[in-house]
Amino acid sequence: MSWWREKILTPVAVNLITAAAIFLVSLTFTPVRNWVFDRNRYVEYPLFCTAEPYVDETIDTRLHIDFLVTNKSDKDYDPEALMEKLQEIFGPETAWSPLIILKRKSIGGSRIGELVSAEQDEAFNRGKGELVVKLDQSNANVTIEVRSISERTVLRAHILVDGIEGLSRKATDRRTNTQIPFYVKELEDKCFS
User: Fold this and answer.
1) Those residues with Cβ within 8 angstroms of residue 102's Cβ, 6 or more apart along the chain or in another chain
2) Spatial distance between the Cα atoms of 76 and 116, rounded to a whole number of angstroms
3) In this predicted structure, what is the pLDDT of residue 33?
4) 164 and 108, same structural domain?
5) Which residue, 16, 60, 84, 165, is the most exposed by fewest CB within 10 angstroms?
6) 184 CB contacts (<8 Å, ≥6 apart)?
7) Does residue 31 sit in the same domain as residue 48?
8) Is the pLDDT of residue 166 over 80?
9) d(CA 115, CA 171)
């Protein structure tokens, strides 16, 4: 009996007591841990945007772009709520706006492609929210306003671009943004992605 107590029972008891003591000591540091790693200190913008280009050769050889707006949060948003979130992130006097403006790329002073149309995908967005999609007067930019978006949903706008040379289904891939005739960095910045 002495061998069992000395070789098995004592080491197991010591390990259990040590583990319990370490656990109890760590509980006393919870306020410090919460202060250092405060999750509520960092406010995140609830929307994420991306664009997927593709060519549908069964319809035409123009560039189709699905612009997707994703609500990552578990809260519904409208323009006022998005503006409040921006003010919470950047301060009450922020110059940022929840409007998403896609500016077309230009090379040597001339813009790439011609914007044919830009509109929300009503069938896709039904029951999830609403986007207001507009082309500006000069057909140079697309403005997208999130009128409403439900929690954890994706809204889609469809943009059609003509006049880009060398497009084909093989040359265009939804996983790349090199074919998108908009400034992608600005697109991502506008959605704070």
Assistant:
1) 67, 141, 142, 143, 144, 159, 182, 183, 186, 187, 190
2) 31
3) 64
4) yes
5) 165
6) 51, 177
7) no
8) no
9) 20
